[in-house]
Amino acid sequence: MKNWAFVSDFDGTISKKDFYHLVLEKYFEEGQALYKQWKSGEIKDIDFLRQVFTSIHQEERQIIEDIHSLEIDEHVPSFIRKVQAQGGDFYILSAGTDYYIHHILGQYGIRGVEVYSNEGYYKDKNVHLNIDPEHPHHSERYGIDKSKVLTDLKKEYETIYFAGDSEPDSHPAKVANVTFAMKALQDILKENNTPHIEVDSFSDIEQHLICIGVLR
Questions:
Q1: Which of 77, 89, 168, 174 could form a disulfide linkage to 5, CB 3.0–4.6 angstroms apart?
Q2: Which residues, by range, are in coiled-coil regions (predicted)?
Q3: Range of 97's domain?
Q4: Is residue 97 part of a domain?
Q5: CATH number assigned to the domain comprising residue 192
């Protein structure tokens, strides 16, 4: 069994803005009604994302340019390298799609990071999702069941550290050994009495891991 791994959500945790927000603002203003339906629980997360990602109607060059415009926590690339250099593995676990995550990783020269997410691909001026209902990590609501992924990873590592920022992250937070909570996830975990450490950034996370001797 390996020693430890760090697993992070992507949208709103590594990136400062969710990719779907960028699409809504730039290409799909009428999607605000759809957003309200999703937030009220009328439609599933994965159906909301499917509709948003197929409402872009741009050449792939433009979509990649938009992806590259997403700001990320500037501390993330050095944090990942530090984790890898000091014996940890780094994973990204996202209920969005690996399509834009891989473009961001390439943009910042981040290597050796495995991505667990909904498979996405460019076709006919939009981003489409390839969801396999038979996949062992499948979730009807999110496309990918984050807690199932973490449960599998726990079989390989003695300790799993997890970072997230929103409702889908509340499920794997119950499985991780240590959860770092940002933004809305903090209140959700408080309500659920799920143990967590409140942070605002990866710089905060790094300081905590240094304090407990995981990083130096």
A1: 89
A2: none
A3: 2-16+73-117+140-211
A4: yes
A5: 3.40.50.1000
> Domain for residue 45, yes or no?
no
In a domain, 47, yes or no: no
**Structure pTM?**
0.97
Residue 30: inside a domain, yes or no? no
What is the total count of domains within the chain?
A: 1
The model's pLDDT over 111-128, given as tens digits with 9 standing for 90+, comes to: 999 999 999 999 999 999
- Region of residue 54 (left: phi > 0; alpha: psi -120 to 50; beta: else): alpha
Q: For 155-201, write each residue's pLDDT tens digit.
A: 999 999 999 999 999 999 999 999 999 999 999 999 999 999 999 99
Do 128 and 41 form a contact (C-beta atoms < 8 A)?
no
Q: What contacts 6, CB < 8 A, 6 or more positions away?
A: 83, 88, 89, 90, 91, 160, 161, 162, 163
